[in-house]
Model the fold of this input.
Amino acid sequence: MEASPTGDAPDLTFRALRQRIRQQEILAELGVTALQGADFDKLLAETSRLSAEALRAEFCKVLEHIPSENRLLVRAGVGWDEGIVGKASIGADLASPAGFALRTGKPVISNHLENEERFRTPEMLAQHGIHRAMNVILQGDGRPFGVLEVDSRSEDEFVEHDLAFLQGAANILGMAIERERHGRNLQAALDRHQVLLKEMGHRVKNSLMIVTSMLQLQARDIGDPALTLHLEEAAHRVSAVARAHDQLFQGADIERLDLGKYVEGICKDLDDSVAHCVIQTEVQYEIEISADRAISAALVVNELIANAAKHAYRGRQGGKILVAIAGAGDDKISISVRDEGTGLPQGFDLARPKGLGMRIVTSFVEQLNGTLEVRPHNPGTEFVIILPR
Done:
């Protein structure tokens, strides 16, 4: 952790801000994972892992409510001893922290379980030496799915900011729970298939735009240029995913997107927000691919534009960024992002990217079974991605 030259108090503030930024990045990451249709059980496990990381806690678990038994089953989790996840359960009554949250419908923070008078400490927590716990409801659709709980052995304390993050993670997971529950009935209701998915896409789009607005508000209020930049980049990522759902909601096909139109819209959004650069597009329309692949491709473009705006014109008043999309033969797509800046720094290694943006780019290109090539120009640099349709 970096030390502050001005003393411990500013250092603690800086550490807290960095933790909040990481929490926002994790919410965006969870949103993308959920929208890409990740396996439900894997999404539960990933939510547990990332929630524990974001809150610097040793334990996290997703508790599924089993009404017939009035119990909460540990459906997924991290940090627990073998034999807990998928098997152990606790009472869903008011006498446990999770049961208290479930029954009252209110989040619960307990930083001193040993002194609690509202409920008892479950044996599972006592056996793991846990001193504090925080719970929020996983609402699902209509009735609660269960509870998302984070636990810790440390003597630190959970605060309201932590609760806001955990509720955000629960909201994203709740949307995935809604989708999973609807999916069980789609085969028996094919006529309602498109209506249900459009409604869900509209909800997700609205929810992500709320997250985007929150990130932008926090970016304006922090007062630190470096932290503001990180939050603005996170907002652009969430906004790119939200635009996909907006386009799906407006179109007749709820499973495929016109990649050119979609990326063109994202570039227009970025052109309005990246004041020192002009983003120009040359896109071919009617290249339709599945929505999940389009979202991944658009996030690649978003990151490359952000990198060009941040690095290519550093120390200059700005410049042009050109984005091109076209068919490459009968079965491939070419995506190009070019700047006219100072070129790549010495030591740049595409195989071992250092920044978060380039790690996102290479990861998504790999997921899309594509190739990424860097072409130097005079002036500037061009990144060319070739994807199978």
Observations:
- The chain has ten helices and 13 strands.
- The CA atoms of residues 24 and 234 lie 7 Å apart.
